[in-house]
Amino acid sequence: MSRRPGLGALVLGVAVLALASGCAMARPVGRVNIIDRGVPAGVKPPKNNYLGMPLRSGQIVLTESPDATSYAFLMLPDKFYPFTHAAVLSIEDDEPYVYDVTGEVASVPLHSRMLDNISGKMYRRPLFEYASPNIHTEIYDPPPGTDGEKMAAYARSLYARGDVKFDTHFDTHDHSALYCSELVALSVEAGGGKPPPVGPASNLPSISTIMTYLGVPRGEAYPVGLFAEPSRYVAALGPLPNRGAAWAYFEAKREVYRRFTADQRIGAVLAVSGNGELSVRPEILAFASEATRLFDRDPAPPQPGDPRIARAVRALADQRFGPFPDALDRGAGRP
After folding, report:
1. Cα dist. 115→16, 21, 109, 146, 178 in Å?
2. 98, 112, 154, 183: least buried by Cβ within 10 Å?
3. Taking a C-beta distance cutoff of 8 angstroms, is the pair 223, 181 a contact?
4. More confident residue, 105 or 118
5. pLDDT in tens, 232-248
6. Residue 210: exposed, middle, or buried by beta-carbon count in 10 A (0-12, 13-18, 19+)?
7. Could you tell me if residue 108 is inside a domain?
């Protein structure tokens, strides 16, 4: 990421306003392919499957949105995490449905506190409909010891109440309103499992300042990527050709995060138009898009965790933005 003047506190405020809708509805992306059924080639899928995928109630659905909010989200935790939204899977009459909490920004803001201009509720949608607006979707089993049926039943009961509201304060400790990670964590607990603990937030000055200004809890973050435990991976959906392409995209975002240092402002990544529309800098978008194509001609493209992905993406970043040494001080807790 090249050095450029920041856009100031206003941009950061609008960016996090957009991010707060971020347990968020995304723009349409296109058709949904089953990228990986989670069953090795030549192995017969289990008897109870959906289109060859071993789906079960209580599994966790993680998605990556194409919206600019996904780049705002990546700045909040003290380390990089993939994915921007989380939900609970429920198998009903042999069909997979997804339960999540989503917020949307009001078209005409009426409140002085920016996050008060966001409202939202809980939704129930078929899996493929839910996945279709996203760049990538993966499904994971819940933490060990979780009863998936009880977990899904809890999510269904909340939805049936009809009164669950989106939590614009992102307060994991107050359950009078919920956001996506909080819903999944409570569902895991209802199933007798132990969700991952809330983690620390970034201590970078630009991020800390805006969190205080917006009235969201400082010092902590609950990124949905905490639920992406590789050993619990189940299946993947989306428009990309394979998981390697998706994780090259995540690696590109990791590189953006790595280069976002204490002297950077959010305007280095995000821009706001005259009418207040948030967008990602075009050079950042081009970099991430190119990362997904790095292995298009590889007859055996790498899978998530393959070091070839990180090496290739880092080389691409150096080519586009210039070298960026690991030794540079990025602030405490930065990877």
Report:
1. 9, 9, 10, 33, 14
2. 112
3. yes
4. 118
5. 999 999 999 999 999 99
6. buried
7. yes
Lowest mean pLDDT among 115-129, 210-224, 241-255, 312-326: 210-224
The DSSP-derived string for 155-196 is: HHHHHHH---BB-TT--TT-TTSB-HHHHHHHHHHHTT--PP
Domain total in the chain:
1
CATH number of the domain that 261 lies in? 3.90.1720.10
Q: Answer whether residue 107 shows pLDDT above 60.
A: no
Show the domain range for 152. Answer: 8-321
What are the tens digits of pLDDT across the range 249-278? 999 999 999 998 888 877 888 887 666 567
Within-domain flag for 328:
no
Instruction: Give the residue among 18, 96, 30, 82 at the shortest CA–CA distance from 228.
Output: 82
Higher per-residue confidence, 121 vs 21: 121
Q: How far apart are CA 55 and CA 96, in angstroms?
A: 8
User: If you search the block for the tokens 């790095």, which residue do you land on?
Assistant: 294
Q: H-type helices in the chain, by residue range?
A: 8-20, 69-73, 127-131, 148-161, 180-190, 205-214, 243-259, 282-291, 307-321
Q: Let me know if residue 333 belongs to a domain.
A: no
Question: What value does the mean pLDDT take over residues 151-164?
Answer: 97
Q: What is the pLDDT of residue 126?
A: 97
Structure tokens at 16: 């996090």
Query: Do the domain assignments include residue 331?
Result: no
- pTM listed for this prediction: 0.88
Give the C-alpha separation, 97 to 87, whole Å: 10
Please give the backbone phi and psi of residue 230, each rounded to the nearest 5 degrees, phi first.
-55, -35
For strand 118-126 and strand 95-105, is the pairing parallel, antiparallel, or unpaired? antiparallel
pLDDT at residue 116 in the model: 65
